[in-house]
Amino acid sequence: MFAKKMGYTLASLVLTTSAFAAKKSSDVQINAGYTNYSGFSDGAFDNNFNGGNLGVTYLYSIYNDKIAPVVGGGLNTQLMRYSYSNGETLTLNSYEGVIKAGAKFELVEKVNMFALVNAGYSFYNYINTSFNKGDFKVQNTYSFGASLIATYDLSESLNVGLGYTYNRRNLKVQDTNYNKDFQYNEHSANVIVGFNF
């Protein structure tokens, strides 16, 4: 009798452990899309910056459930362009490391949703204008915000989806006779290809 009970217990443990292990707990997401900068402090720019973004994010589910906490990070690059009324242009290119935390929701079969908070810092920035050949420097570029993501599973390991990100950003622009901090809003809409493992 004891051996029989022990056998049932071991079988149950094996099945439970196998089911848990089969549940994928890591997500890698590649995103690309449109980005807009607006609401600059001091009314520095009359119009908005427009451009694109490309990035990759890794998210790890701390435990597997229909609602689970996730943590992770990634890399993101943005290439933005501003057009003045006189036809002159300003281009801003940045490469940013981002940390993320939040929740993953699997309430509907094959549909995954993520609600995340973001904090980022740009480790490389480049600014160029068509009217000033001076050596502009961009420093202290950081961001705080949130992202909402929804994906649909095409298979056990592949999904596609859409995402929206809002960040409040800060940067400092320096030149020989210029030194100014800017705060502004980022709105990004992305198409996402994701991998689960």
Short description:
The chain is mainly beta. It is 11% helix and 69% strand. The chain has one helix at 2-22, and strands spanning 26-38, 49-61, 67-83, 89-108, 111-129, 137-153, 158-175, 178-196.
Task: Describe the secondary structure blueprint for this structure.
Layout lengths: L1 H21 L3 E13 L10 E13 L5 E17 L5 E20 L2 E19 L7 E17 L4 E18 L2 E19 L1
Antiparallel strand pairs: 1-2, 1-8, 2-3, 3-4, 4-5, 5-6, 6-7, 7-8
Tell me about this structure.
- The protein has 197 residues and is mainly beta.
- It has a single domain (26-196), classed as Beta Barrel (Porin).
- It has one helix and eight strands.
- The protein has one helix at residues 2-22, and strands at residues 26-38, 49-61, 67-83, 89-108, 111-129, 137-153, 158-175, 178-196.
- An eight-stranded antiparallel beta barrel has the order 1-2-3-4-5-6-7-8.
- A hairpin with a 5-residue loop joins strand 3 (67-83) and strand 4.
- The protein is elongated, with a radius of gyration of 22 Å.
- The two termini are 40 Å apart.
- Mean pLDDT is 85; it is low at 1-22.
